[in-house]
Fold:
Amino acid sequence: MRIFFSLIFLAFPILLFSQKNKQVNSAKEIDYNSKYNSSDSIKKKKAPEATYDMYQFISLSRDTTYIDTTQSIRKSYSHNYLRKDNFGLLSFPNIGQTYNTLQYGMNGFSPYPEFGFTARQFNYLKVNDIKYANVATPVTELYFKSTIQRGQSADSYFSLNISPRLNFSIAYKGLRSKGRYINQETKSGNFRFTTSYNSKDGRFIANMHYTSQKLQNEENGGISNVSDFTNGDSSFDNRERLGVYLEDANSVLKGGRFFFDQAFRINPKKGDNNLYFTNQFNYEEIYYNYKQQTIASNVGGTLVSRFGESFVTGGIDDITNYNKMYNKVGVVYENMMLGSFTFFVDDLHSNYFYNNILYLDNGNTVGNLLSQKINTFGGQYNYRKDKWNGKFLYSKSITDQNLYNIDASAVYDWNDENQLSFRYQSMNKLPNNNYNLFQSSYKEYNWSNDFVNEKINSISANADTKWVSLSMQLNTINDHLYFADVTTATQREDSMQIVAPKQYGKAINYASLKAAREFVFGKWALDNTLLFQKADQPDNVLNVPEFVTRNTLYYTNYMFNRKLFFQTGIELNYFTSYYSNVYNPVIGEFFVQDRVKIGNAPLLDYFVNVKIQRTRLYLKAEHFNSLFSKNNYFSDPNNPYRDFLIRFGLVWNFFN
Structure:
């Protein structure tokens, strides 16, 4: 907190100084060839009423979206806990739990080492998830959706403009959902505050945000006797009668971040040649806390140690701490004909630590600190002219770590309805911290490693046309890191689950093709998204279903003199059977297994979407075919997918 308030103190005079001139609309300085000015603002004449394009939400990379109060089937896909289309993700039975990943590579790649505990971070907002407002008048958006027993999911967002160039936003997303199984309650809170500023003459821009996030889950480890679920015995229709491995365990992921990004044009007036100074600062603290009061689990009347022997007899309270400070400075030369050339250096300090050093009975020592200092230098070239938009990035470490990243992309806008894009990425990626160091009260969940870097090469191509949207991805992964099931046959007979990090010494080749197309027949429509993917590998390490599909058949019409717009239909989600990864709460990660397959079970939802003025209403009967289908639907081998449930929600926008 001292760092946070110190930085606010340093940044506040800059904002005050930059506002000393008379405030005017910065849209006059528009330049679509530059990233470092108000290039994403929309130039327009004064109007008595604000129009939709005066309500902009800008990402860190300067991609701009506009507020949209229309209703569409694509928008309904984003009406969920994550607030985005979750195609390629398989949710667990309760809202706020983790997701099994059906599509590899959907979250992108970064060469830097991260905290880890990735299974608990689907709702943890990263730097690139934050949007900065540029609005004509104050805007409020309210999101609500019912959950599973005794709870609700809500997200409130408010933004305002003190001047045409100074915008603020504040938002909070909260969740509470009890769930239907024993020890499954989830709670979460995501607070975010943003500020964005553009100076009158376009010389200085700044974006700042602060986030505070806390994700709390009760952890039951899955049902202990899967056959009680699959045999269809009606006595287990009340899911609280199903035995679970853990009845008093829980986990907490909590973090706070201060982020500041600024750019200053050195030459006083903008011309054909411009020089900018850029700076980016990020400080973040995060921890993962796993608690379990009772060590032994009751499985069919027998006491078992699910995660093996423990150093303690009860009251497990394991905490993993992490903090990082990132600084990046750069110089940008911009030529209106040639594009922009960026040269930068950055500095990353991170500490991943525990309170004690462990001396194990086998003679091994597990340290308590993994401290890293990484410095890289690099350059980036951006080109935008006519219908072309391209970027080339190269960065390499100058410290001991062998880190590099090559990222090249090109986009061609054929016209308003057709766009082609291509991207190539090659990187030497440092391992996430929890692969190299982990401490736990469970004896077999302690390790200290020195894994080599992962090598990832990725090629992707996209075609968004008025006929169909296609995306292709080809990846080659060497020295792939993953968590493996290392449970012995004897331990498995005792219902144990032992997991350890592994590095795969052979190459993995992954290919995917995704296609999306909507067919419209009068007031009826059929929206389709299909994914074909294949992993070529000697062993079952990177496991994904070969086919994933979402198909929505729906009817659209107006009522009450066109004052009410509605859509109603059925949505099908399906994926072929495959060796699913399994969630482990001790490490907050999924691990690889090749014993049990899930899938080949269609999931059907019936929905009604309604729009009245600027209010969108959603009513959905989720997984209604579970009322008459077999109990063969799972999120992972130990956790059934959610049962039939009727949920209601809305999104409501206000403009002042």
